[in-house]
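Entry: Ubiquinone biosynthesis monooxygenase COQ6, mitochondrial
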Amino acid sequence: MADIATYDFVKHKLLAKFNLPDNWVTHAISSACAGLSAAIVSLPSDVVKTRMMDQIRHELDAKMAHTKNVHIQLYNGCIDCFVKIIRHEESHRKLVDLMLLGCRSCHLGAVRHASTSQYYDAIVVGGGLVGNAIACAMGQNSKLSSKRVLLLEGGNTSSLPKSPPEHYSNRVSAVGPASIHLFRKLGIWDRLHDYRVKKVNRLRVIDNCSRAELEFDPPLKDQEIAYIIENNAIIGALYDRIKETCPTVEVRTGATVKHCNLPPSLNDVATIELDSGEKIETSLVIGADGARSRIRQSMNVDYTSFNYHQSGVVATLVVETPGENDVAWQRFCRAGPIAYLPLSRTLSSLVWTTSTEDAQRLLSLTKDEFVDELNHSMFTEEDQNDCVNKSLFMLSKLPLISKEIGPTPQPPHVVSLQGDSRASFPLGFGHSHTYVHTRAVLIGDAAHRTHPLAGQGVNLGWHDVMILDRVLGRAASDGADIGSVTYLREYDSEAQRHNLPVMVSCDWLNRLYRTNAAPVVMLRSLGLAAFNRLTPIKDFLVSQLSTPH
């Protein structure tokens, strides 16, 4: 009787507050939902009614204060509560799962405005390495099987060719083990492996000013440090996989976003306007549109950014090296690091970080002049500090150090450039203070931009994909709105905890190695040499970066 009294009390309060008529509409909605819930979870009908109305009373101020269509919102609140009750009770799960789709469809109808615009449950803006990955992940997520996803790509996307071209692309990624785990989950790893990848078995980091070095090996015998894969191959494999296995995902190429309107609450949907004038409504906008993200601008969130006044010069190198060319090299020079990423037995990919002005000069050199200057920068000992090297020798005699520091290992010798493969891109730092907003979320470079010296930029974006896919799946499984900040904040917190330490470390290392001052060179060289001999700590660091979360 207490439950019935509570139910009646709440209902009359609702009628008084919103001037709802005490007629069959109100009674039918509450009674039908309560009776259905009670039948499914085997609870007394009055208990369910009480829970439902308590839920509505709790959420009315936040969700209905400025809503015109109160009947629809009352129904919407009942459905929300109904879903929460049956999920909490975990009774008759199979029947519940079948009914959830219908309930959430009703929920969607309550949230959307009456309009002629197209509607998708989620819109991914940006179809690059990260945007294609999240679209593919959502399309394969069984918990999101009822969600229609639209992927908007401003350019053109092509399928992965049956056989690779003779020349490599100058834009490649060092794909870490955690990202390889994602690729396997999405079903693209085997085709990429059969297409063209290069396994990296070791990473060597050397200092231009001393003989200090850092060597990373895989933590497990059969594991890898990374795989070097061409960016266009990854995008092509993801695009093919979406077409093959994701019937709920639609891909539109040549579609540019003109404007994004994000509502202040879940009472409304987000609206995307394209350059063509077409408007599309959605419950969730996923911004994967790069460092100059229009979606981030629409979110109006705080964004910390600065320019390194550096550029990365990329090219494909023809090299000579003993062995299999399975070592990635990075030499820290004053202007910035120079990295060689192996592509094949005789080819490596170059990322040469230098000042923006010097990058333009390097691009203007002839191929032979460019190769000569590159070899000189990688092999010269002009900046070696004898005092620091003597200190390193003394350090090698301490019990902590198990072996002496010998001559600096030598990277491959560059013979020539493959084709006309030189290009450059600007470098900078950027980080959004929050990755989420009502009905919007940022991933990849739209949320964070970091220095490429550790090769972690796109790997951070793929880590975002893994977290967001899991969070959205749980929201859908709980019957919640996937655009709700309540769930998106979980993604925001977990992603930032992972990304910020990596980004700050990359920024700190870049600044630390941009000086030849003797005291700084001494400290960084001694620290690098000591750390290189602490194998357990190195293995732990590599395993943390390699493990999917």
